[in-house]
Every structure is written in structure tokens, then in C-alpha cells.
Amino acid sequence: MSDLLQGRVAIVTGAGRGIGKAIAHQLHALGAAVVVADNGTSIDGAGSDPAIAREVVKELGKNAAAFDDSVASPGAAQAMVQMALKQFGGIDIIVNNAAILRDSFIFKAEPLNWEAVIRNNLSAPFYLTQAASAVMREQGKSGRGGSSYGWGRIVNIVSSAGLYGNLGQAAYASAKAGLVGLTRVTAMDLVRAGITCNAVAPFARTRVTDIIQPANEAQKSYKERALKIDAAHVARLVTALAGPDCAKVTGQVFGVRGREVFLFNQPRPKARIVNEKADWDIGALAAAIDKDLAPGFTDLTTDLEAFNTEPFV
């Protein structure tokens, strides 16, 4: 398996620490050249430290390069792709992992913080996906890796907060939910080119779990359990999705928690009411919602509460 990704080239954003670093190491260990993209910012996006990405490159050794600027601009996306092309000759795998947090209850939230999180956690993946997928399509036409390319892989690191919601995470959850939507459309747009796109919601010890301030016993237990889970488990799933055996897997949302791997369902109609004879009367519509739809409502359980069980580690 050590040469599973031999000859492939990956860009991993947020690869300086935590999950991103584990993914970079796993891809590289299986033969891929890796662009380690991380400007060394704090968890809230303040400041930078270019030494973070360079240190990871030093650990990886040959076939690794550091991109130590912010990834949150179209220019940065183009620069990362050009670095991969110039130094390693192509681009086959994209892992959109970089994320920041600026949490606040909705009634206290600052618009500038909202915009910063959306730019970094949602717009940046779009910029890189747009830039890289154009190159991947051309590589397929030119026969990179053989007569049938079949190699383009895009993995977006999302969050259960974007699927369930969590207290005080309007910006973060919205960005991650948007990233699920981007995953679906990307998969649809690129399926004919043989390029896949999937989403992974990770459960592991990261800077995000480190800074959780539990508001109740359920959240306290969640944090204690999350701190036990090594990011290497996430890296294994991402690497599997990036490999040759998952060439037909696309448009899906996975979760990984230790040795557990989840497949999340995706929103589809689960109940229906219809007035076949006339437009709804407002009162009758409200009554029908209460009688026929309310039993299927989704409760307000947060992601921290939903996954508050002992992991397999």
C-alpha cells in the first residue's frame, strides 16, 4: 500500500496542525507529493506564522512544499495550483480542510466575524475547487496517468455542526452546511470527467475541540470523549476517498469518529400534505402542519449531544 498514491499530487489546506496535518502525512506516506497549505493563523483567523507549514514540510521530506499565505482568496487558489503544477507536474487531490471559528450567539454576532468565517470556511474551498478542477479536467483530456484519467479527487472537511447545528455557531455551521451544498454540486458538475467530490465530518481532537467551553454535562462529556480520538482516523478515511478504489464514490457525506465511519443521509422530503381542491386556508394549513407534519419534525438536538457516546478508539 505504500505506493497507492505514487505519482499523485495533493493540496491540503489547513495542513499545519491537527486533522490537516494528519491527512498530509497519510497522503505523503502512500506516495503522493503534497502542497502543505497553512498560514499558521490562530483558531479565530488572527495573525500568522509561516513556520507552521514549513515545519510540516520538513517532517515530510522530499515531495512536499509549503504554501504559507492565507488560502481565502481566488489569487491564493491559483497560486496553490500553480505551485503544484510547477513543482510536481500536476494536481490530483484537493482536501479543503482549513477553517476558523468566531463563535457567538446570533443576537450578539458581529457581521465582520460572520464574513471572515464564510470567506475562510466556504469561499476558500470554492476558489480552490474552481481553480483545481479546471486543471483536473484538462489533465483528463491529455491522458495524465494513462488513457483514462479517473483520478481527480476532492474531499471537503465539513462538520456535524453544519448538519445538526450547535449553540453559538451561526457562522461556522452555515459555512459547513454550505460546503455540503458545494460538495453536491461539484460532484454533479464533474462526474462526467471522472472527478469525485465527497464531504467528511470529522470527530477528533483538534484546536476546535480543545477550545470547547462546555455549557452543560452533555457538552462536557462530548469534549472528554473527543479529546481521546486521534486525527489519524480521519486521515485514513480521507485517503481512502482519495485513492483508486473509491473512483465511483461521489456526492456523499461521511462522518468518522475513531474506528466508526458514518454515511449521513441528505435532506429529502419525508412527509407531504396537499390540498387538491383549492388554495390552502391559512388556519387549515397551520392545523394540517400540526396534525400531519409535526410528528416528523427534527428536534433541536445539537451535534455535541447527538454524538455523546463512547467512541471506538
Structure characterization notes:
- With 313 residues, the protein is an alpha/beta fold.
- The chain has a single domain, classed as Rossmann fold, CATH 3.40.50.
- 43% of the residues lie in helices and 13% in strands.
- It has helices spanning 18-29, 51-60, 74-88, 111-142, 160-164, 170-190, 207-210, 217-226, 232-242, 282-293, 303-306; strands at 9-13, 33-37, 64-67, 93-96, 153-157, 196-203, 253-257, 260-263.
- The protein has an eight-stranded mixed β-sheet, with helices on both faces.
- Helix 1 links the parallel strand 1 and strand 2.
- Helix 1 (18-29) packs across helix 9, helix 3 (74-88) runs parallel beside helix 4 (111-142) and helix 4 runs parallel beside helix 6.
- The longest helix is centred in the middle third of the chain and has 32 residues, at 111-142.
- The chain is globular, with a radius of gyration of 21 Å.
- The mean pLDDT is 93.
